[in-house]
Amino acid sequence: MTLRDRGKLKWAPAAFLPEYTKMLRDLDTDYHRQQKPIIDEFQFEEFDQRICYSMEYNFAVKITKWVDGFNYEIVGRIHYVDPVHKEVRLKTKADEVERVKMSDVITVEVIE
């Protein structure tokens, strides 16, 4: 006879406590949170060179940004580099403009 474990279903009766459910959800997100990697000057210069190269030849880029402990990837073409606000504007495939602050950028890859 095989053992049939109900898994998460056996904890379903505890769902009547919304504070407990919210606490478990917050603990799960905190567990997967990462620290921001340290990026030095040379990496920032390399990011700038890749951004300028992709703007000159109209190549797509994949930018990985760090927001509140999680990494997000954005793929698109560089639309504008704003030196005053220190941000890059990308045009994605859905013709939307995404703004990415340079302080949040972790990696920049040129897609040829």
Give a verbal description of the structure:
By secondary structure, the chain is an alpha+beta fold. It contains two helices and five strands, in the order ααβββββ. The protein is elongated, with a radius of gyration of 21 Å. The model has no long low-confidence stretch (mean pLDDT 88).
Sequence stretches where pLDDT stays below 50 over 5 or more residues = none
- Helix tally? 2
- Calculate the mean pLDDT score and round it: 88
Task: Please identify the structural class as seen in this structure.
Answer: alpha+beta
Q: How much is the radius of gyration in Å?
A: 21 Å
Distance between the termini: 57 Å
Shape: elongated
The proportion of strand residues reads 25-35%
Order of helices and strands: HHEEEEE
The strands making up the biggest β-sheet line up spatially as: 4-3-2-1-5
Fraction of residues in helix: 25-40%
Short description:
This protein has 112 residues and is α+β, with helices and mostly antiparallel strands. The chain contains 2 helices and 5 strands. It has helices at residues 18-32, 41-57, and strands at 60-67, 70-82, 87-91, 97-101, 105-111.
Output the keywords:
5-stranded antiparallel β-sheet, 2 helices, elongated, 112 residues, alpha+beta, 34% strand
